Amino acid sequence: LSGKEMEGSVTRSDLLHGWISGLYPSLCPKAHEDHYVELVNRLAAGGLKVYLQPDGRNPGLLRRLIETGKLTKVVLNILGPSSVYESAFGGPIDPSALAESVTLVKNFPNHEIRLLISPVKRADGWSWLTKEEAGEAAKMLAEACKEPQLPFGMAAVTAEMPQGLHGLEPFAPDQMLPYRSAVRRHMFKADISSAEAV
């Protein structure tokens, strides 16, 4: 139905045991939102547990997908401050869309809201999201949702994830502590996500 138009939003699954991941609905082109809903319905009808990862944009599609009743887990990935969204997607994130996404996700029974520390494309190549950007992302989230006490996880992209490392060294677990300190200035309950939650 969609040709190759949905390739960025439907990627390789990195989960096993009946789970299907690699689904990033915020990246779905608007012309294919109906196809995305159909895809989720078909995956669930095949007996798979659907793990969805929005990023705070396009809450309208997220609402439709939740309303199918076919999702098993929803993880809202905050990718960085608005400047990171702008460099990655060509425009800053809308705070009202982020706030609506937070509301939708936190009301879903099996959910997590987290900072996903990822490689960021810079003018001179790729580098990891910085701890300063992590703090800015937490501030952006706190201001958008007005809930600094909201439980908030932190995880880093691994080589197995579809996003890839873009030639960077893997993010070491001991690097996470300074990020947590920066994030906790704005999201007071921030903590490092367990490996199972990633």
Keywords:
198 residues; alpha/beta; 20% strand; globular
What's the quick description here?
With 198 residues, the chain is an alpha/beta fold.
As a percent range, the share of strand residues is 15-25%
* Strand arrangement in the largest pleated sheet: 1-2-3-4-7-8
Number of strands: 8
Q: Could you spell the SSE succession in H and E letters?
A: EHEHEHHEEEHEHE
Radius of gyration computed on alpha carbons: 16 Å
End-to-end Cα distance, whole Å, is 30 Å
Overall mean pLDDT stands at 92
Largest sheet: 6 strands, parallel
Would you write up a description of this structure?
With 198 residues, the protein is α/β, with parallel strands linked by helices. 33% of the residues lie in helices and 20% in strands. The protein contains six helices and eight strands; from the N terminus they run βαβαβααβββαβαβ. The strands form two sheets. It has a six-stranded parallel beta sheet with strand order 1-2-3-4-7-8. A two-stranded antiparallel sheet has the order 5-6. α2 packs parallel to α4 and α4 packs across α5. The longest helix is centred in the C-terminal third of the chain and has 15 residues. The two termini are 30 Å apart.
Break the fold down into its secondary structure elements and pairings.
Blueprint: E1 19-23, H1 33-45, E2 49-52, H2 59-67, E3 71-78, H3 82-89, H4 95-106, E4 111-117, E5 119-122, E6 125-128, H5 131-145, E7 152-156, H6 176-184, E8 190-192
Parallel strand pairs: 1-2, 2-3, 3-4, 4-7, 7-8
Antiparallel strand pairs: 5-6
Helix pairs in contact: 2-4, 4-5, 5-6
